[in-house]
Amino acid sequence: MDYFLTEEQRLLQEIAYEIVKERIRPVRAELDEKEEFPWAIMRDLAQSDLFGIWIPKEYGGLGMGILENCLVVEQLARGCIGIATTFAASGLGAYPIVLFGSDELKRKYLPPIARGEKLAAFALTEPGAGSDVSAIRTRAVRVGDEYILNGTKQWITNGGEADIYSVFAITDPSKGPRGASCFVVEKGDPGFFFGKKEKKLGIRTSATRELVFNDCRIPRSRLIGKEGLGFIIAMKTFDKSRPGIGALGVGLAQEALDISVEYARKRIQFGKPIISFQVIQHKIADMAMKIEAARALIYSAARYLDTKADAPDASKIAAMCKVFASDVAVQVALEAVQVLGGYGYMRDYPVEKLLRDSKILQIYEGTNEIQRNIIGQELNKEYGRIKESFIR
């Protein structure tokens, strides 16, 4: 389908896909097997100026939006969503600074992130606070011109590899979620340590670690926004980033479909290619329809969110992108394994990895169950405001 992309947007797709063909596909199986962080590919992405897509021009970026970010991560996901997640997670970590940081914080941290010289990470999840963000226990106590952080963050993407962390901590326990704040913590700050690197089902080249704060002292100037804005900062960030998770799902699903069609055209059974059998045609037809529907939703939603930054239904739209496309990714990857049969179950073929990788899309940045809660709650509010029936 023609999504009426600009020449510049198509160029971004081409650059990202060229990196996929030349640099990612040849090494994705090896990186997955060794669980090796993809520093060499991160440098390729940096040299291509892709890290600066969504960072404002005045801070060294390209000043683009959610759509352009989705276009790039979709292509990268065709190669490996572990690598694409590493790239996207740096954007997730920087978004709080972009959206709420002071000019001082932006000038200090955004230019090196835009150049790809430093990776960022987003630190919200804790051992006892996953879907229930209000349950975070990491504390930040102000002492003079410093904050002292104590607590633990769990399952942090880019943990240990990133240099810049957006960390959420409680500054006023009496206020519940409204007592949370967000801070910039740097790798190497006194009292800031890393736990073990997690061993995962999929996205094994992506680093996932525990963060430990033991009397970690940071300057007061590292507070993002104001005290008590932490919960709002996190939710506004997710409104920007969740369409990107959907784009990861579309890219992975597209790769699974491409491999399935290519295999079905070559695999001979009963004297003819298996793609000539109706059952296989129906499988790949359903795969293709789901992918195109997910892509149409994400591109349309990204354009909407780029043009209406403060839209009252932003959370609902972002959640829809994440849920629908990630569910499609899992469904399509599973069907790809079935199309390839025994070969699909073997590590010699990439669909086995695609299936393992796909599952995380339904879990991170808010489980799909939580996203459905968000969608349902927002619909309840919307229809509660409607005074008369209407046709959309």
Characterise the protein shown here.
It is a single chain. This protein is α+β, with helices and mostly antiparallel strands. The protein has three domains: 7-119, Butyryl-Coa Dehydrogenase, subunit A, domain 1 (Orthogonal Bundle); 121-228, Butyryl-CoA Dehydrogenase, subunit A, domain 2, CATH 2.40.110; 231-381, Butyryl-CoA Dehydrogenase, subunit A, domain 3 (Up-down Bundle), CATH 1.20.140.10. Helix content is 51%, strand content 15%. The chain has a four-stranded mixed beta sheet with strand order 1-4-5-8. Helix 5 packs antiparallel against helix 7 (230-266) and helix 9 (314-340) runs antiparallel to helix 11.
Based on the model shown, name its key terms.
10 strands, single chain, alpha+beta, 11 helices, Butyryl-CoA Dehydrogenase, subunit A, domain 3, Butyryl-CoA Dehydrogenase, subunit A, domain 2, 3 domains, Butyryl-Coa Dehydrogenase, subunit A, domain 1, four-stranded mixed beta sheet, 392 residues
